[in-house]
Amino acid sequence: MGRRQVKRKCVSPRRTPLSVERRTEQGFTGMIGYLHIFYVTEASMNSAATQEARLYRMQTREHVCPFGLKTLDLLKREGYQVDDHTLTSREEIDAFKSEHGVDTTPQVFIASERIGGYEEVREHLGLDVPDSDETTYAPVIVLFATALAMGVAMHWQVWGTLVSPFLAEYAIAIAMTLLGLQKLKDIESFSTMFLNYDLLAQRQVRYGYVYPYAETLAGILMLAGALIWLAAPIALFIGTVGAISVFKAVYIDRRELKCACVGGDSNVPLGFVSLTENLIMMGMGIWMPLRLYVL
User: pLDDT value at position 163?
Assistant: First the structure.
């Protein structure tokens, strides 16, 4: 008998189903690869979109232009690659101004277009442009916040606690002293602005020169808790006259004026804050003798 031939079939091996862990691992690998491609693509696009700017600014041995440095910092923070050209001599400066028909530096060029100086660059980038004539309460807010922080620090040093009835006294006395100091920095400028609304100064011009010294003295004495019989009447008097003057100018005459409370060169509007300052001084002038001699 002949051998029985067995037909062999080519059978594909059975595929074992992937485990859940294996499939999860492959999913994460694919996702990471996709994110990597996306990140590289986005970085390449951003790099390609990076703009260049040319800056010309004055930097001589005698003078470094502060607005040139501010412009350089602004452009870098906005993502520009800055080609920084420093003009180091009067000849270079004059030649540059003559060539481009400009009167000042710094000057910025972006994509062959002259943008201008610091403020023009801010405007080009869609940023706020500082207005030197715009009224603001920022100086008063900063001063009172500093006075409060100093009051807390002094109270902690003396009493070992953060809060007590004495905290308000410390903070107000420090605020009065700082306000007086701001006026004393340029007493001529203060007295000129003060004449616009203070009723007593309009009758006695010299009162505008006395006021800053009186406010500073009252604040220092109240902070020390000394000579309250002198400090309290001073604070009560100048606070009362100031409150009446501000109320009349703002709420009766409806005048729009700048307040001299932080000096004669500020843009703080005369209004509720100024009135509050004077009312607080009146309150201190009444409270301090009551606490020391009556209560």
Answer: 82
R_g of the chain computed on alpha carbons: 36
Residue at 88: amino acid letter: T
Average pLDDT score over residue span 11-33: 46
Q: Which of 48-52, 127-131, 263-267, 275-279 has the highest mean pLDDT?
A: 275-279
The tens digit of pLDDT for each residue in 148-199 reads: 999 999 999 988 888 888 899 999 999 999 999 999 999 999 999 999 999 9
Residue 83 backbone dihedrals phi, psi, to 5 degrees: -90, 100
Report pTM. Answer: 0.72
Domain coordinates in residue numbering, the chain? 51-124, 138-294
Q: What is the DSSP letter of 287?
A: H
What residue has token string 């041995």? 61
CA 246 from chain centre, in angstroms, equals: 27
Percent helix, strand, coil in the chain, to 5, is 60, 10, 30
108 bridge partner residues: 55, 116
84 three-state secondary structure: strand
C-alpha dihedral (87, 91, 97, 103), degrees to nearest 10: 90
**How confident is the model at residue 141, as a pLDDT?**
92
CA distance 30 to 34: 6
Give which of 136, 122, 88 is closest to 265, Cα–Cα. 136
- Count the Cβ atoms, other than its own, within 10 Å of residue 247: 15
Architecture in CATH for domain 51-124: 3-Layer(aba) Sandwich (3.40)
Can you tell me the mean pLDDT for 244-269? Answer: 90
Rounded to a whole number of angstroms, the distance between the first and last alpha carbons of the chain is 135
Looking only at the bridges linking them, the beta strands covering 107-110 and 113-116 are antiparallel
Beta bridge partners of 55: 84, 108
